[in-house]
Structures are given as structure tokens and as C-alpha cells.
Design brief:
binds NADP nicotinamide-adenine-dinucleotide phosphate; seven-stranded parallel beta sheet; 46% helix; alpha/beta
């Protein structure tokens, strides 16, 4: 990693994103954390990221402004870590004006905006997209289908990409309560630990949950690894 590098983190305020910003700064990488103006905790995260030595960017989504912003910044690495959840989209739909929040209107549309902005650069950055385990063509699961749509867009539009498919991302440092996810991860991890003891180590390593800090370490390592270019990284490779 050198001072010539500039990492742009979209979804910086998220559980994974905030650890990615921290990890990049720990390696001395010039970092631009994207924090949208409408973010519930705009001040908290802007202050926290500045304290880490990161710059803040609030380019608005949906206005085609990312292309211009990327042309100014010329990022060498882009981390696409944003997304909604089914529960959050449902909650926000109650007060939304215009298009209802969904995997399509948030995960797919906004990540596609980043892909287009990256593709328009003369020197293509490494584009790291945080996908999900189980992403595959033809899936009937709407979340995984949206991940597949984004992965396909990344592959079609860019040459320098890394797609990462983790299992549950969770840990005691997650400040948003996600009871279903936490219970699912805890139960799953217990069963998988047993399976690992009985010899099913590959199964355990693929499906057990990962903490934001561990995932961030792997994402930053992969982003700067020339051999990770054009690769899909499965959960067990993130350990
Ligand atoms: N959690 C898991 O177990 C898991 C597993 C596999 C893959 N993934 C995927 O990995 C990614 C990161 O997960 P995470 O758990 O770290 O995410 P998270 O904590 O839920 O953070 C989500 C990020 O997306 C942004 N976002 C949400 N709605 C938005 C909107 N309407 N407009 C603009 N930005 C919006 C949030 O920004 P604000 O703070 O401004 O709202 C935040 O930065 C997600 O795409 C998720 O689908 C998650």
C-alpha cells in the first residue's frame, strides 16, 4: 500500500464499512468515507472518521453525481458495502415519498451508480463488492437475486473487481439490534462448531458468522492483492 492510493468507501457508516475505514487508515491509506447527508448519524460518523484521518464525502445518490466526483478524486480502490435489509426497507417504506425502498432501489441502483462511475475512469480502480453467501443465478430469494444482479453488472462493466461472499456478518459490537440475525448466527455457529469437531471443517468455515473487524481486515487485504483481481471470494477464504 502506498501514498498514491485512494480508497473510496460507500456504506462507510455500516457495520462492515466503519471497520473498513478504520483498517484502511491503520495502513495509512488515503481514505474517503461516503456519509450521506440523510444518514441518521451524520455528525457522529463524520466526526469519528475525521478523527481516524479519513476525508468525508457526501455526494448525493441518484443524481448521477458520482461520475463527476470520481473524476475529481480518481480513487484507486472502491468498496461497495451498502445495502438495506428487508426489515429496514419495510420500516422506511411507511414514510417514503416516491419509490419505496427495496433491494432493487437501494442495493442494486446505488451500487450500479458506483460501478458506472468507476467504469468511466481512465484508470479503473479495484472494485470490491460485498455480496453474500448463496448468491447464484436463478435464485428465487429476492435478496440473493439482487446480489446476483449486482455481481453481473460488476463483471460486465469492469475488469478489476473482487466479489466477496460472506456468511452472517455480526458481533457484539454491532449497535443495531437484529434479533433474528443474531440468534440465527449464534445457533448456526454452535451447530457448525460441533460439525467442525466431527471433521466437517470446510462446512464450518463456510457458514459460520464473521465479525465486522475480521471481515474488514480480509476486504482490505484482498483489495490490495493483485491475485484477487477477477475473483469471487467465498466465506471460508475470509478467515
Ligand atoms: N449483515 C449480514 O449478515 C450480511 C451478510 C452478507 C452480506 N451482507 C451485505 O453486506 C453489506 C454490508 O452489510 P452490513 O451489515 O455491514 O450493513 P449495515 O450495517 O446494515 O449498513 C448498511 C449501509 O448501507 C447504507 N444504506 C442503507 N440504506 C441506504 C439508503 N437508502 N441510501 C443510501 N445508503 C443506505 C447505510 O447508510 P446509512 O447509515 O446512511 O443509513 C450503511 O452505510 C450489505 O449490502 C449486506 O447486504 C450482509
Amino acid at each position: 500500500m502506498s501514498t498514491a492510493e485512494l480508497a473510496f468507501v460507500a456504506g462507510a457508516t455500516g457495520y462492515t464499512g466503519r471497520s473498513v475505514v478504520r483498517e484502511l487508515r491503520a495502513h495509512g491509506v488515503r481514505t474517503v468515507a461516503h456519509v450521506r447527508r440523510e444518514s441518521r448519524e451524520f455528525e457522529r460518523w463524520s466526526t469519528a472518521f475525521r478523527e481516524l484521518g479519513s476525508e468525508i464525502d457526501s455526494t448525493p445518490w441518484g443524481a448521477g453525481a458520482f461520475e463527476r466526483r470520481f473524476a475529481e478524486l480518481r480513487p484507486t480502490h472502491v468498496f461497495a458495502l451498502l445495502g438495506t435489509t428487508w426489515a429496514r426497507a419495510r420500516r422506511e417504506a411507511r414514510t417514503a415519498r416516491g419509490e419505496k425502498p427495496s433491494y432493487q432501489s437501494i442495493d442494486v441502483a446505488l451500487t450500479t451508480e458506483l460501478v458506472r462511475a468507476a467504469a468511466a475512469l481512465a484508470h479503473e480502480p479495484r472494485f470490491v463488492f460485498l455480496s453474500s453467501i448463496g448468491t447464484a443465478p436463478g435464485t428465487r430469494n429476492p435478496y440473493r437475486a439482487s446480489r446476483w444482479r449486482i455481481e453481473s453488472t460488476v463483471r460486465e462493466a469492469l475488469d478489476d473487481w473482487t466479489l466477496v461472499r460472506p456468511s452472517f456478518i455480526t458481533g457484539p459490537d454491532r449497535d443495531e439490534r437484529r434479533l433474528g440475525e443474531t440468534l440465527g448466527a449464534a445457533t448456526g455457529d454452535a451447530v457448525l462448531a460441533l460439525a467442525g469437531l466431527l471433521g466437517a471443517r470446510r462446512l464450518r468455515d463456510r457458514y459460520r458468522s464473521i465479525r465486522g473487524t475480521d471481515l474488514a481486515r480480509a476486504l482490505v487485504r484482498l483489495a490490495f492483492d493483485p491475485t484477487a483481481r477477477g475473483r469471487v471470494i467465498h466465506a471460508e477464504e475470509l478467515r
